[in-house]
Design a protein that fits this description.
heterodimer; A: 220 residues; mainly alpha; Methane Monooxygenase Hydroxylase, Chain G, domain 1; 0% strand; B: 253 residues; alpha/beta; Rossmann fold; six-stranded mixed β-sheet; 37% helix; globular
Chain lengths: 220, 253
């Protein structure tokens, strides 16, 4: 019925997806730069962050304008507010990828403390979660959103594992403390990325079902 | 983007009573401009100045300039009939010619405006106008029905088709949806959004949600004064004037 309005809704969705694609690649490339020790990949990740920051502002501006001008209700209202919240999560993911690059800048000039195994594994799961969360957003796929949320535990466990392992390195040899701390921080950033993907899934469930599933875990 | 109409220092009076004070605004070509404000703010008076609808109102007087097509339309030399052909108008209450057929309602302007138009050409214009007014599909098999037999929303779209038939540059609409139900209103609003790409449209409305939905720019009037005019997104997210803010947030008016 309202052609212009539905075009705007589509445009908003496309912007969120473009931003999602960018932060997905930022996450992937930042970890790859660290694991494969490729300094030359840093500038491209930093360049992508500029685009992400611009989209962060553009999406909020557009969503705010639509709320003011279109008086969205029901599905449309939940979609627009979800887009705004997902926007915030995506921007934070971009920031985490930049943080990983910063840790990598510290780590690459010095010999590795150990071969990286768990961190690439964490990155892989976090990236998949992010990709699936965005797919769920596009398709309004609640089942997929629930399944994605469940994977967050695996990332948390890997983060604990990285911490325990590096703790033993630091206790055995104080000269590894700086490098170990940097790696612990990288695992912390990846864990946060998975948390943001989880938030996106929760927003998708609210968008589709109108049901708030946040804060219902064992700690709630 | 250039301007279709430039209003300069327009003031207007009914007798001793000043109803518009020193209005200056640019109306952009091929866009939708809403004029919004509480009852009695002068918004209807204002758009009626744009095609000189007050000419015959006893005691009405206006000063300033309204520049359209490079000429000040307030001067005596302008023929109001020609002006109204280029600056068409749609009113609050749908007013098709009640006994005339749908077809004749649209064709009448062409027939009155000059000879030398063939039947075939008229038929083309009628179809094109009804299509643009988004009512062709509903009425193409009922072109002989009387204007008064249509629903209110259909009548209003018929009036829009009638206005479009004489190929105006500007379309003035004075509360075009106030007499219509929500479904008809949505149709007219969508039509206004569509037509805004090809015509300069000025809509008077006291419904600020409607102004938000349909317009590119919004002018806010209060007691005969133009308080603020800006892009709709600016007006409805962050207006510059405190009075606009108070009006759109429902704190007065």
């Amino acid at each position: 019925m309202k052609k212009h309005y539905s075009e705007e809704l589509n445009h908003l969705k496309e912007m969120v997806l473009r931003m999602g694609g960018l932060v997905e690649k930022m996450t992937h490339d930042s970890v790859r730069a660290l694991v494969e020790r490729k300094r030359e990949m840093f500038p491209e990740v930093q360049e992508m962050e500029k685009q992400v920051n611009q989209l962060h502002m553009d999406i909020d501006e557009m969503a705010l304008g639509m709320i003011a001008l279109r008086q969205p209700t029901a599905t449309d209202l939940r979609f627009i507010t979800a887009a705004m919240k997902i926007n915030t999560d995506l921007e934070r993911i971009g920031d985490q990828a930049i943080n990983i690059v910063e840790q990598a800048e510290e780590l690459l000039p010095v010999p590795p403390v150990k071969p990286l195994i768990d961190i690439p594994r964490m990155a892989e799961i976090a990236e998949e979660m992010l990709k699936d969360a965005l797919d769920a957003f596009v398709k309004g796929d609640v089942e997929s959103a629930y399944r994605t949320i469940e994977r967050d535990d695996a990332v948390d466990q890997l983060k604990d594992q990285v911490f325990r392992e590096l703790l033993t390195f630091m206790m055995a040899d104080a000269s590894t403390i700086a490098r170990s701390m940097d790696l612990i921080l990288v695992s912390r950033h990846l864990e946060r990325i998975a948390d943001h993907a989880t938030n996106i899934c929760e927003d998708v469930i609210f968008m589709v079902k109108g049901k708030d599933v946040r804060h219902q875990g064992p700690l709630a | 983007m250039d301007n279709a109409i430039e209003v300069r220092n327009l003031s207007a009076w009914f007798g001793q009573n000043q109803v518009l004070s020193d209005i200056t605004m640019d109306i952009r070509r091929n866009s939708v401009t809403s004029v919004m404000g509480p009852s009695g703010c002068g918004k209807s008076t204002f758009i009626r100045c744009l095609n000189r609808m007050h000419d015959l109102t006893p005691g009405f007087r206006m000063t300033g300039e309204i520049v359209f097509d490079g000429r000040n339309i307030l001067t005596e030399k302008i023929d109001p009939v020609l002006l109204r052909r280029k600056v068409g108008m749609v009113f609050q209450q749908p007013n098709p010619f009640p006994r005339m057929s749908v077809y004749d309602n649209v064709a009448v302007g062409l027939r009155l405006n000059g000879g030398g138009i063939s039947r075939g050409e008229i038929a083309d214009v009628v179809e094109k106008s009804l299509r643009m007014a988004a009512i062709w599909d509903e009425l193409k098999d009922h072109l002989d029905r009387a204007g008064a037999s249509l629903s209110g929303g259909q009548q209003q779209r018929l009036c829009i088709a009638r206005a479009l038939a004489v190929e105006p540059e500007v379309l003035l609409m004075d509360e075009p949806c106030s007499a219509l139900d929500p479904v008809s209103t949505a149709k007219i609003e969508e039509l206004i959004e569509d037509l805004g790409d090809r015509y300069t449209i000025v809509v008077v409305t006291h419904n600020m949600q409607q102004a938000a939905r349909i317009s590119d720019s919004v002018a806010f009037f209060l007691m005969g004064v133009l308080v603020e005019m800006d892009k709709s997104a600016k007006i409805f997210t962050n207006p510059s004037d405190k009075r606009t803010e108070e009006y759109i947030t429902g704190r007065f008016g």
